[in-house]
């Protein structure tokens, strides 16, 4: 499978999980961690060695898209956009920090999954 297709699949799976957890009313922190681990493992097992950077990019991208959609379509986000200035800066800073945090978690998920899959392949030989 091409890496570009896998990145697109990772972003779509991440957005689906992001929306699902938002719909269920999960705490965004826990939902983001679960989504990052799932997408990281998916990418890590599929690509193998060197998948960490692809997992990081994919998770960062879907988190940015997800947070932007949440801010545009929720009352809290509309309120922050209405006030602008400091509230909007704090909201954008929070979204970037959380996207980076989730990306690091997904990075480690992909690292562990790729190492476990390569160890299993080595044992078969």
Q: List unreliable stretches of 5+ residues.
A: none
Structural class given helices, strands, pairing? mainly alpha
Q: What is the count of DSSP helices, taking H or I runs of 4+ residues?
A: 5
Report mean pLDDT, rounded to a whole number: 84
| Structural Rg | 16 Å
What percentage of the residues does DSSP assign to strands (E)? under 5%
- Number of separate domains: 1
The counted number of beta strands is 0
Rounded to the nearest angstrom, the distance between the terminal CA atoms is 24 Å
Share of helix, binned: over 70%
- Largest sheet: number of strands, sense, barrel closure: none
- Report the principal-axis shape: elongated
> What is the string of SSEs from the N terminus onward?
HHHHH
Protein name: DUF5518 domain-containing protein
Keywords: Membrane, Transmembrane, Transmembrane helix
Transmembrane segments: 7-24, 30-47, 54-74, 86-113
What do you see in this structure?
This protein is mainly α. The chain has one domain (1-119). Helix content is 90%, strand content 0%. Helix 1 crosses helix 3 (52-73) and helix 2 (28-47) packs parallel to helix 5.
Secondary-structure blueprint:
Layout (H helix, E strand, L loop, with lengths): L2 H22 L3 H20 L4 H22 L1 H9 L1 H40 L1
Helix pairs in contact: 1-2, 1-3, 2-3, 2-5, 3-4, 3-5, 4-5
Protein name: DUF5518 domain-containing protein
Keywords: Membrane, Transmembrane, Transmembrane helix
């Amino acid at each position: 499978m091409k890496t570009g297709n896998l990145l697109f699949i990772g972003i779509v799976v991440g957005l689906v999980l992001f929306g699902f957890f938002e719909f269920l009313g999960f705490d965004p922190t826990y939902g983001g961690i679960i989504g990052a681990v799932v997408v990281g493992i998916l990418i890590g097992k599929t690509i193998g060695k060197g998948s960490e950077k692809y997992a990081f990019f994919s998770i960062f991208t879907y988190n940015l898209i997800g947070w932007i959609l949440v801010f545009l379509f929720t009352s809290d986000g509309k309120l922050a956009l209405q006030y602008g200035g400091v509230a909007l800066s704090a909201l954008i800073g929070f979204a970037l920090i959380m996207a980076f945090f989730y990306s690091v978690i997904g990075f480690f998920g992909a690292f562990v999954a790729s190492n476990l899959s390569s160890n299993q392949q080595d044992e078969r030989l």
